[in-house]
Amino acid sequence: MVEREGTVLRRTPYELVFGPDRFEAEVFPAIAEEAESRGTRGLGPESFIMLGRVGNLLRDLRPGEGRGAVDGPPAEAIHQYGSLTWHAWSFWREGRPVWALSEALVRYLIEDGRVGPWVFMPPAKAGYVQLPRHRLWTRVEEDAPAEPIDGFHWTWREADPEAGRASPRIDLLLALGLRPGRAGLSVIEVSATPPPGPDGHWADVRARDEGPDFGNILPGGELQDYHGIVSVAEVLKLVSRCFHWLETHPGRVIAPTRAESAGVPVEVDAMPDSTMPFRAAVLVEDGPA
Known about the structure:
Order of helices and strands: HHHHHEHEEEEEEEEHEE
Structural class: alpha/beta
Shape: globular
Mean pLDDT: 85
Largest sheet: 9 strands, mixed
Number of helices: 7
Strand content: 15-25%
Radius of gyration: 19 Å
């Protein structure tokens, strides 16, 4: 029997920005239809935003005073909204797979998650991994205030020379600063091609020149067991360790369930529980349900 370790799914960026009813019933199927009619191969964010239906959608959703899901200057926010929409559409098309990682598992992955030989591979072509609340922090810019990382969207595309892609590519979108009362969120985009060879991943890299990788970045944060991310290398290191765990420990991933079945009280100022099905990845295999 697998121990839940208190894992619960909070409301996701997908639910916050793309209220599923309209987008899943009308918008996303229409985008898929246009992409198919154009014969688009391995649609990426650059070509995605060139679709007519996507352009119309982004104009409708363009940030204005008091509007916009992504915080920031209007031009930058539009670009980020396009990337967020692409990830959300890819996520919907893949069946909306979500994994919520437990506190104990994330602590292990950060502190002792060495991998060794392994070829980087995500558990699905697109999905979302949610991290424990307030466990990892980062900044969208060096002088910006630190924000907690809710989790990350990813979209994976295999190598396709005919589509102009000689190597596989992982596109990531970190979601930051989700909280009740805030209309939007902050995002960080990362794209990379996995390194070749038997160590074709980033899980074992040394990401910081000084101090431990994932070291705290908040004053007094070490007292709360907070950790931080300050570089792209740390993002890729964390993602590699998450994906490796999901691949190599299927017995410690609870079958899809719903957030309300976890029976965990909602913390003060936390996002409300999600109602989406999800998988809970845990460190401890045996224990009470």
